[in-house]
Design goal:
The chain is an alpha/beta fold. The chain folds into 2 domains: 159 residues, NAD(P)-binding Rossmann-like Domain (Rossmann fold, 3-Layer(aba) Sandwich), CATH 3.40.50.720; 183 residues, Rossmann fold (3-Layer(aba) Sandwich). 31% of the residues lie in helices and 18% in strands. It is built from 11 helices and 18 strands. The strands form 4 sheets. Strands 3-2-1-4-5-6-18 form a 7-stranded mixed β-sheet, sandwiched between helices. A 7-stranded mixed β-sheet has the order 11-10-9-12-13-15-14, with helices on one face. A two-stranded antiparallel ribbon has the order 7-8. α1 links the parallel β1 and β2. α1 packs parallel to α10 and α6 runs parallel beside α7. The longest helix is centred in the middle third of the chain and has 20 residues. The protein starts with a strand and ends with a strand.
Length: 362
Amino acid sequence: MNIASLSENKEIEKRLAVTPEITKKYIDLGLNLFLPNNYGSHLGFNDDEYKSHGVNFLDSDEEIINKADIIVQLGMLEDKRLSLFKENQILVGSLDSFSNKEKIKSLNSKKINCFSLEMLPRITRAQSMDILSSQANLAGYKAVIEAFQVYERAIPMMMTAAGTIPAAKVLVVGAGVAGLQAIATAKRMGAIVFATDVRAASKEQVESLGGKFLMVEGMENLETEGGYAKETSEDFKKKQEDLLSETLKKIDLVICTALIPGKEAPKIIKEEMFKNLQKGSVIYDLAAVQGGNTAFTEVNKVVDKNGVKILGEANILNKLPVSASNLYAKNVFNFISNLYDKENKKLNINLEDEIIEKTLIK
């Protein structure tokens, strides 16, 4: 059985679905692996590294797609390449099934099975495949680094003969995987960290990392069975806004990470709240690509609003592509291992398996 990956559009995606480190595992599983020439050269992975593990290289996308039973990618491919797919092939990736409904519908009509890994259930057995967690972990770390680079003051408290420099105060909005890593990173760099989340269960995790959890009066646990945040009531939103407005008066940096799967990001830092932020403060909005958590976030722009800088990139992981690729490639391999029947050397799309059933998009 053959597995393949095509080159991503490097202008928008530098990560890879297959790294040299993971290729040997595919070969050991009994799969033949096909890649295009110079597949990983932009990350310093030359073709010889792949070939040493038994990878086959082909000249064109058409040849690769023709050979493949399974194609693994980062995101959804463009129409030109999707038109080359044939019946009974499998496409695996972070396919953004909410935004790409029509493309997936078209692929399904050609009897092509699409597995979108952002739909993985939050169960113990799926943790090694969890692309959202592995990538969000890196995004939370990098968001803090990027924000600190723009912030024009020192981060830790410094006591000198000339006086004391106070520690920077950081607010993390959303205490999921990205938020928790942001808290940990900011604390390691000497900041004082506050965090807020609609899920009451986050309090213990935030405090275990040394952050102070901001509690809304009468707070309940607004969490879905899958571990994601629910949309909140208008009453809760008002209480949260009042708490944030007051907190922002003493905050130097804000890291926004709040997302609702398949929906526009909630607007948490509203226009009127900006009057409470000090000039020179910085906001990094990881939710930018889904509309942003602030009233003024713009994708791939640094917005200056009354002296407050707001940053938000479409893909922050393009700044950590090697680390992100290594984790993503392992997640994908673990998913394929679960899908592949090694003994009978064939795919087993067992819909009684929750992992397969939840990720198969119809």
